[in-house]
Amino acid sequence: MLVLDITKIGYPPSLYKRVQTIQNEYFNDLRQIENVSEVELLKRNWKIVFGGQYREVDTGYKGKVSQIDLDPTYNFIHQQLLNSSDVKSVLEGDSVRTRQIGTFFENRFKFYDFNLNLGVRREYYDKSREWKTAPRIGISKEIAYTQSRIFAGYGKHFQAPSDVSRYSARTGNPNLKMEESEHAEIGWDQKIGNFWNIKIEGYQNTFSNLSIADPYAMDPFSRNRDLMRESLDPNADLSLVRRSNLNYSNSMTGYSRGVEVFIKKEASAESGLYGWISYTKSITKRNRNLPELTKQEYSSWLAESSAKDLIHQENTDYYYANFYRDGSYDVLFKNSKEELYDFDRTHMFNMVIGWKFDRRHKLV
């Protein structure tokens, strides 16, 4: 936590002083069973691959105060912060067990120089109690006399939330769904001689249901309360209808698209230069799909809504509608726009070069 303190101006000049730092310590225990089987029906022409996976993860966190300024001037700030319900939830920590089931079935066909992969995967995530179907397709055509390969593919993918603080009942939203993405690609792969290879590939990824910090998502009934812990707290609000902030939602969407050029040089059998160079031009954007309020508008809405009992929240793709016990309601439209993602890199250039001295020694 930073506080404004004009008496502590140093060099370089700074008007803020860090008086308290709270951080989380995470743990993760993964248990996984996986099986993959293959059946060849037509020699070299048709193969079936199928299998399944079971994942069980025990993960959690516990907060700690890693830095605190003992100056008596800040005692009031420390008390206010450390006694707040949000900070207490972080310091007490939480542990969550999640289970995922995955099954897949894939047909691999090969006819002369033509390859076709048709597959499907089913995913289950126990926290959201949802089954999802993910189709996959891949096509490629090899042209032997030019040493070329043309390829294209499409696939849908699902991933459970990975940050426990986001789906913990104490600090986040235990009802977060699986994040979704669709990947499509098309490209050309060219071999030149015995040592050179050039690949050009265009791709597009579309994302939906991405988890994001959301100050508007609320649960009017606080379904995920620790009643045993509350019964021991004389200051706890034990009312059945009591809203809680979920802090996170699956509101964010986005996309990335680009073109990559990849050039690779293999070393000869004895010795020589080897390495690869790649260049990618891309764009990545995200839309938080949240209401865009000014600081004053948000403070006004928060003060007014916090003073009333929330009995229902409607969350659609376009707005939040909050209904209160006194018969009033408010509607917050999700008017955010697409923005460049924090990790957007319009131009990326990578290069690795090495020298092979013999079969056993290389320099990179």
UniProtKB/TrEMBL annotation:
Gene3D superfamilies referenced in this protein's UniProt entry, alphabetically: TonB-dependent receptor, beta-barrel domain
This protein's GO CC annotations: cell outer membrane
Keywords: Cell outer membrane, Membrane, Receptor, Signal, TonB box, Transmembrane, Transmembrane beta strand, Transport
Keyword check for Lipid metabolism: no
Main location: membrane
Topological relation to the membrane, as annotated: Multi-pass membrane protein
Any single GO BP term: siderophore transmembrane transport
Compartments where found: Cell outer membrane
Protein name, as recorded: TonB-dependent receptor
Organism: Leptospira interrogans serovar Lora str. TE 1992
